[in-house]
Write a structure and sequence with these properties.
The complex is a heterodimer of chains A (308) and B (506). With 308 residues, chain A is an all-alpha fold. In chain A, helix 6 crosses helix 7 and helix 11 packs antiparallel against helix 12. Chain A has one domain: Orthogonal Bundle (ABC transporter involved in vitamin B12 uptake, BtuC), CATH 1.10.3470. Chain A is 71% helix and 0% strand. Chain A has twelve helices and no strands. With 506 residues, chain B is an alpha/beta fold. Chain B has three domains: 234 residues, P-loop containing nucleotide triphosphate hydrolases (Rossmann fold), CATH 3.40.50; 176 residues, P-loop containing nucleotide triphosphate hydrolases (Rossmann fold, 3-Layer(aba) Sandwich), CATH 3.40.50.300; 67 residues, no CATH class. Chain B is built from 16 helices and 22 strands. In chain B, the strands form five sheets. Chain B has a six-stranded mixed sheet, with helices on both faces. Chain B has a six-stranded mixed sheet with strand order 16-19-20-13-21-22, with helices on both faces. In chain B, strand 19, helix 14 and strand 20 form a beta-alpha-beta unit. In chain B, 46% of the residues are buried. At the A-B interface, helix 7 and helix 8 of A face helix 2 and helix 3 of B. Bound molecules: adenosine-5'-diphosphate and magnesium ion. The site of adenosine-5'-diphosphate (ADP) has 13 residues of chain B, from strand 2 and helix 1.
Chain lengths: 308, 506
């Protein structure tokens, strides 16, 4: 019974963690370069719709994912245009981007689709033989393909950030943009690139929600996951492994809360639902102090000639 | 590969900022193996001129020639391609990256992903060996001292291919000994076919390091020539545009009442040890007392306890017979205390606030300038304009942010504010640190005036010349207490120097 309960938590938690992980990894690059993109939620929502709509009309989940990522990239560029080129406040630009994605996806959905419609999307795979192993079989070998993609992206993101010259530039631009600028690194270019990566990843996260997880699109399908992803970047101290840990912790707590209800365990429902959120707030409050690790120039537009 | 620099010319460079003509038709010239000193007071335009050469700013008029060919420098990357390297006054290093990583940042311009740190390490070691500089490539920048970071900047510029080095006020943060080492290093670099532009307002260094000198004043080139043909005082005059006489306070025999009385003061330092250990000191109206000492012997704690930002563990501080021990800073200000702090940008002023706001910072509550909760705009404007004029503060207008002013002008804002409040006691901590002689002369004259007006002034400084020029009495601080008090006149350097090292000779 206990074992079944724990396996149940894990099985329920993993799919929940994917969109947080993908969006979080993307936002990590954005923040590492010094841009604070609060609009992740909006990108995810719009991409969830784009992915859904492509599958709904053309039927190809692959094209759906590509289209969603392209949409995410465009949203990243839009954020760049407003916050880097026009130097608007990043916080406000992000909120604007969120509202834009939210409003646009909802409107397009009502105009072109109308009501709840399911699509075939991407289903879980069962790796023969291995998936029959008790306990670890279902956990490790019978997940949605995008789950594997998301978790593979953790080491890839680490490599990109810490082992490549591009990653070095991203880290420098987010900490001391003037130092990067004076050795010929284009702050604007690196920040745009990071925003686009963040957008593409948020796009993939959104596509996962509609194409792989829910097989449909509905208003507020992202349910705040984009904002949680932003918080997880702080939680994970701007490191891929940390963000993965945060995504898992949050989704396991979420899964636990669901299971309590499924099992009919006598626990106040209202409290159970807020457990994961409280967890995030508590951990954030404790990790906030070690700010020194973070990108020091986060949130500050860069201007060569600006003094003071 | 672009050929190395044998001859650099900047011709008729003009650069404007909103409300400021920072450079007005300036031309300079430099040949291989030469060290050119760019001399000028704060705000003269030295940094701006070099930022133009390095591609950080773009000139409004004028052109740059390398080896007699005109070149466009749109951004630092063009400067690097043309073998120009710059060590900025505020170092351009990423603190949480290592030395290698900081240099690799500029090394792999076109490669998107390959990060060959070993290659960079080899290059760094080559350069370090060539010029005899010690650097640890694996160290994080935050672990390094200011002197070490400066060496990293030099190695960085050379590793990235520079053979013309610009150094913007490289000695501002160095001790005299480090300065001598740097000068030797630069001469060695020049011998090995590099050329160097050395920015400073310290005349002695300029004299000892450079072959030629160009002097800027208010954005104009006012002088150029070979270093050997000019004396230090001639250069000082060129720089300031007038004769400079650092003033001495006139002899005085009568002083007023005791205004500041510190009795057996004990206080902790930031490390949790004793910063002040039974310090005693008495300061009279109309008197300047200099506090001499090697830094770290309690100067900081002394200024802190008097201004109310550090707790006194034991002892009493009296201002004009009022006990102010452990009162809040604002209560102490009320009692007649003025303070010119060491860190003028962060403690002495609010950099993001305007000059006008900074001038009234300590009086925002007084009934003269505010009625209940609202500030009286007209009164303040008049007050601020008045001070800007009398203290000759150079700023486009009173709404300019304090951060955009030069150090000397920020200091004038602070002086204006503190002195016009007419305090009984004025603490001046390192009042001329980082200022050029013109500004130093100005500050000293104001302090002497304040003394004549009857203020009791505590002057904390590391420059013995300053202390000897101004003080009526000199207290030597050592390990958190005043070791001995000497008369301001007839005391020599040697005697103070020994006391500063803790040697008492009866
Ligand atoms: N980025 C900037 N924006 C506005 N004003 C500036 C800027 N940089 C320099 N200035 C102004 O140009 C003048 C010259 O400054 P600077 O070149 O820094 O002098 P120096 O290096 O000789 O002390 C000053 O009046 C300064 O306030
Ligand atoms: Mg300067």
């Amino acid at each position: 019974m206990i074992q079944e309960f724990i396996v149940g938590i894990i099985l329920g938690g993993i799919p929940l963690s994917v969109s947080l992980l993908l969006a979080g990894l993307g936002e990590m690059f954005t923040q590492r370069s010094g841009v604070f993109n609060l609009g992740v939620e909006g990108i995810m929502m719009l991409s969830a719709f784009i992915g859904f709509f492509v599958v709904y009309t053309i039927g190809s989940p692959f094209l759906g994912i590509i289209a969603a990522m392209a949409g995410g990239a465009l949203m990243g560029l839009l954020m760049g245009l407003v916050s880097i080129t026009f130097k608007a406040s990043q916080g406000i630009s992000g909120i604007g981007l969120f509202m834009f994605g939210w409003g646009l996806s909802g409107t397009l959905f009502r105009v072109y689709v109308g009501g709840v419609t399911t699509i075939k999307g991407i289903n879980d795979i069962y790796i023969p033989v291995l998936s029959n192993i008790p306990i670890i079989g279902p956990i490790l070998f019978s997940q949605n393909p995008l789950v594997y993609v998301a978790y593979l992206l953790v080491p890839v993101a680490s490599w990109l950030l810490f082992k490549t010259s591009w990653g070095l530039k991203v880290r420098a631009v987010g900490t001391t943009p003037a130092a990067a600028d004076t050795v010929g690194v284009s702050v604007v270019k690196i920040r745009y690139q990071s925003l686009v990566i963040g957008g593409v990843m948020a796009g993939l996260a959104g596509a996962y929600l509609s194409i792989a997880q829910a097989h449909l699109f509905a208003d507020n399908i992202t349910a705040g996951r984009g904002f949680i992803a932003v918080a997880l970047v702080y939680f994970g101290r701007w490191k891929p492994a940390g963000i993965m840990g945060g995504a898992l912790l949050f989704s396991m707590a979420h899964s636990f809360q669901r299971l309590i209800q499924v099992y009919g365990i006598n626990f106040p429902y209202e409290i159970a639902v807020i457990i994961p959120y409280i967890l995030v707030i508590v951990v954030l409050a404790f990790t906030w102090k070690s700010q020194s690790l973070g990108p020091l120039a986060l949130g500050k537009p860069y201007d060569r000639e600006f003094r003071g | 590969m672009v050929e190395k620099i044998n001859h650099l010319e900047m011709q008729h460079i003009t650069k404007r900022f909103p409300g400021v003509l920072a450079l007005d038709d300036v031309s300079i010239e430099l040949k291989k193996s030469e060290i050119l000193a760019l001399l000028g007071e704060n705000g003269a335009g030295k940094t701006t001129l070099m930022n133009v050469l390095y591609g950080l700013y773009h000139q409004d008029e004028g052109s740059i020639f390398i080896n007699d060919k005109i070149i466009e420098i749109e951004s630092p990357i063009n400067a690097m391609e043309n073998h120009i390297g710059m060590v900025h006054q505020h170092f351009m290093l990423v603190p949480n990256l290592t030395v290698i990583e900081n240099i690799a940042l500029g090394y792999f311009q076109d490669t998107r992903f390959k990060l060959d740190l070993n290659l960079v390490r080899t290059k760094i070691m080559e350069i370090a060996k060539k010029y005899g500089m010690a650097v640890d490539p694996e160290a994080y920048i935050w672990q390094l001292s200011v002197g070490e970071q400066q060496r990293v900047e030099l190695v960085k510029a050379l590793t990235l291919g520079a053979n013309l080095l610009i150094l913007d006020e490289p000695t501002a943060a160095l001790t005299p000994q480090q300065t001598d080492e740097l000068i030797e290093l630069l001469k060695e670099m020049a011998r090995q076919d590099n050329s160097i532009i050395f920015i400073s307002h310290k005349l002695n260094e300029v004299k000892s390091v450079s072959n030629r000198i160009s002097v800027l004043r208010n954005g104009k080139l006012v002088h150029e020539g070979d270093t050997v043909s000019y004396t230090v005082s001639e250069l000082a005059e060129e720089m300031a545009g007038r004769q400079i006489n650092l003033p001495k306070s006139p002899e005085k025999l009568e002083f007023g009442e005791v205004m500041l009385d510190m009795k057996d003061i004990w206080a902790y330092n930031d490390q949790g040890g004793w910063g002040l250990q039974g310090l005693n000191l008495q300061l009279k109206a109309g008197e300047i007392m200099g506090i001499a000492g090697v830094s770290g012997n309690g100067q900081r704690e002394l200024a802190d306890v008097v201004s109310g930002v550090r707790k006194v563990e034991k002892g009493n501080i009296l201002i004009d017979n009022w006990n102010i021990t452990n009162h809040t800073a604002s209560q102490i200000i009320e009692r007649g205390m003025g303070y010119i702090p060491e860190d003028r940008l962060h403690e002495g002023s609010l950099p993001g606030f305007s000059v006008r706001e900074n001038l009234i910072l300590k009086d925002y509550n007084s009934s003269q300038i505010s009625s209940s909760i609202f500030l009286k705009k007209k009164v303040i404007d008049k007050f601020a304009n008045n001070l800007i004029e009398t203290y000759n503060i150079k700023c486009p207008d009173m709404n300019t942010s304090c951060a955009s002013l030069s150090g000397g002008n920020i200091q004038k804002v602070i002086l204006a504010r503190e002195i016009t409040r007419n305090p009984k006691v004025l603490i001046a901590a390192y009042p001329i640190r980082g200022l050029d002689i013109g500004a130093a002369e100005y500050v000293h004259n104001r302090l002497i005036e304040a003394r004549e007006a009857g203020m009791a002034i505590l002057l904390i400084s590391e420059e013995l010349e300053e202390i000897l020029d101004l003080s009526d009495r000199i207290g030597v601080i050592y390990e958190g207490a005043i070791l001995k008090v000497l008369p301001g006149r007839g005391t020599d350097y040697k005697e103070i120097g020994l006391l500063m090292a803790g040697v008492i000779d009866e």
